[in-house]
Amino acid sequence: MNIPNRITISRILLIPIIIILLSVPFQWGAYDIGGQSLPISHLIAAVLFIIASTTDWVDGYYARRFNLVTNLGKFLDPLADKLLVSAALISLVELGAAPAWIVILIISREFAVTGLRLVAVGEGIVLAASQMGKLKTTIQIVATSALLLHNFPFSYVSFPFATLTLYAAMIITVISGVEYFIKNWHVMRGSK
């Protein structure tokens, strides 16, 4: 249980707090931002989500820099990312801030790729994340953060940044999933 793994676990432990902040109607007040109301509980959830997302880079950098890469870390790190983004997106669907069909596509891709990785592990093959996969994660985090912030600061100029980045995240998520399966189809073909 080294420092990068502890950072990853802290990211996972923030998930229920973020869900509670988004799900429970706390009466802590709200900020008026560009004609929109941003509840303080949603602002806190967004800040925690951004902090948790940042720890993904921190734990990876620290693990590589100090040669602390472990099998536990290889398992927990992508799991933590998927849990964090999925939990936030599902909460946003419940709040009416994200269309369910987009969130279903994004989460379905994550399940499919995770399934392929499990098949590969069974065959003794480790499938590395692609550059497109890393871009996908970054855009998902930006879109989710913007939605959690109710499109702040873009709501002041009536620019639908949160919505546009969510659509971009969906498109890149699907493309990266297809690319991942095409590149690694030999794993499925050769599995026993």
From TrEMBL:
Give the EC number: 2.7.8.5
Q: What does this chain do? A: This protein catalyzes the committed step to the synthesis of the acidic phospholipids.
Q: Name one GO cellular component term.
A: plasma membrane
Q: What is this protein called?
A: CDP-diacylglycerol--glycerol-3-phosphate 3-phosphatidyltransferase
Its annotated compartments are: Cell membrane
Gene Ontology molecular-function annotations: CDP-diacylglycerol-glycerol-3-phosphate 3-phosphatidyltransferase activity
Q: Can you supply a Gene Ontology BP term from the record? A: phosphatidylglycerol biosynthetic process
Q: Which UniProt keywords apply?
A: Cell membrane, Lipid biosynthesis, Lipid metabolism, Membrane, Phospholipid biosynthesis, Phospholipid metabolism, Transferase, Transmembrane, Transmembrane helix
Does this UniProt record's set of keywords contain rRNA-binding? no
Catalytic reaction annotation: a CDP-1,2-diacyl-sn-glycerol + sn-glycerol 3-phosphate = a 1,2-diacyl-sn-glycero-3-phospho-(1'-sn-glycero-3'-phosphate) + CMP + H(+)
Pathway(s) annotated for this protein in UniProt: Lipid metabolism; Phospholipid metabolism; phosphatidylglycerol biosynthesis; phosphatidylglycerol from CDP-diacylglycerol: step 1/2
Spell out the coiled coil positions from the record.
Answer: none
What membrane topology does this protein have?
Multi-pass membrane protein
Q: Which residues cross the membrane?
A: 12-31, 43-62, 83-107, 157-182
Report the sequence similarity comment from the record: Belongs to the CDP-alcohol phosphatidyltransferase class-I family.
